[in-house]
Write a structure and sequence with these properties.
It is a single chain. The chain has two domains: about 130 residues, ornithine cyclodeaminase, domain 1, CATH 3.30.1780.10; about 180 residues, NAD(P)-binding Rossmann-like Domain (Rossmann fold). Strands 1, 2, 3, 4, 5, 6, 7 and 16 form an eight-stranded mixed sheet that branches. The chain is globular and about 55 Å long. The mean pLDDT is about 95. By secondary structure, the chain is of the alpha/beta class. It is about 40% helix and about 25% strand.
């Protein structure tokens, strides 16, 4: 039997704090060598990107493959999210598919959770910090939720090229998190925040890296293609750069690949992988003034770990529909 889980099913069982814990286990496995993680297979279709992402986590007993797409025209033309996906979860003992679940919300949550984990280990630990979010979509929502779980926030700021979207985001997230969330009119207003998350579909830099405040922590998650970047060269040069995966970022992250091609940086700009920070194999922030940057292209271990978490919780709660295929 295969457990079918709709988006509503996934939303009903998946909480950010649990997802951050799952990311901690997944990145630890990656650093300790118990994860199998091929590079994602990307296909550029006429109107967007299709990616195929398999992974296995030995310690978590999680084997899965996600099919995910990024189609920028979806919201306006089809009333669909930019990011869509489905996850196949398998039984590692038999190889049989035991669950098929919606991957759109799962992708947003696991991406936010990775930033939450990075924030936990890299951001300053001051009380009453301010978070700044670029991008008022579902990914921006999960980024703010994750940062809220990882640090004490007094308020949050959001900037989006669509002012109406920014206001809707502020209203929704103020109510959800019970903190003040304010829309702002320029990218520069975001750069005064203690923790900055970039969650846009931009293909060129969205702010001037020379204006980032000392001590800021940045989660850069929106761009994941070689010719696209949200972060400029100065941002990369000024930051302690932590990657979700060295191999992945050097193959897919335009934020890093473009400065490399310019000759502005070398590959050793990547200080460590997140799993190495989590397991203590590498040191993170060394001073309150240091700018830290987590660059993520998204890894299949995140999907496998989250899918296993969702499946286990759904089975325990009686959520979903069992079918024979």
């Amino acid at each position: 039997m295969v457990l079918l889980l709709t988006r509503n099913d996934v939303e009903s069982v998946l909480q950010m704090k649990d997802c951050i814990d799952a990311m901690e286990n997944a990145f630890s496995e990656m650093a300790n060598g118990t994860a199998k993680l091929p590079l994602r297979i990307n296909i550029m279709a006429p109107k967007g990107l299709a990616a195929y992402m398999p992974a296995y986590l030995q310690g978590m007993n999680a084997l899965a493959c996600k099919v995910v797409t990024a189609y920028k025209e979806n919201p306006k033309k089809y009333n669909l999210p930019t990011i869509l996906g489905k996850v196949l979860l398998q039984d590692p003992d038999t190889g049989d598919v035991i669950s098929i679940m919606d991957g759109g919300y799962l992708t947003a949550m696991r991406t936010g959770a990775a930033s939450g984990l990075a924030t936990k280990y890299l951001a300053r630990e001051d009380e009453n910090q301010v978070a700044g979010i670029f991008g008022a979509g579902i990914q921006g929502e999960s980024q703010l939720w994750a940062v809220y779980e990882a640090r004490s926030l007094s308020k949050a700021l959001v900037y989006d090229i669509d002012a109406d979207n920014a206001q809707k985001f502020a209203d929704k997230m103020s109510k959800k998190l019970n903190i003040s969330v304010e829309p702002v009119n320029s990218s520069e207003e975001i750069l005064g925040a203690d923790i900055v998350c970039t969650a846009t579909t931009a293909i060129t830099p969205i702010f001037d890296g020379g204006k980032i405040q000392p001590g800021c922590h940045i989660n850069g998650i929106g761009s994941h293609m070689p010719k696209a970047r949200e972060l400029d060269t100065v941002t990369i040069q000024r930051s302690l750069l932590i990657a979700d995966s060295r191999e992945g970022c050097l193959a897919e992250a335009g934020d890093i690949m473009i400065p490399l091609q310019e000759g502005a940086i070398t590959e050793d700009i990547i200080h460590a992988e997140l799993g190495e920070i989590v397991t203590g194999k590498a040191q993170g922030r060394t001073s309150p003034e240091q700018i830290s940057l987590f660059k993520s292209v998204g890894l299949a271990i995140q999907d496998a770990a989250t899918a296993k978490l969702v499946y286990d919780k759904a089975k325990a709660m009686g959520v979903g529909k069992e079918v024979e295929i």
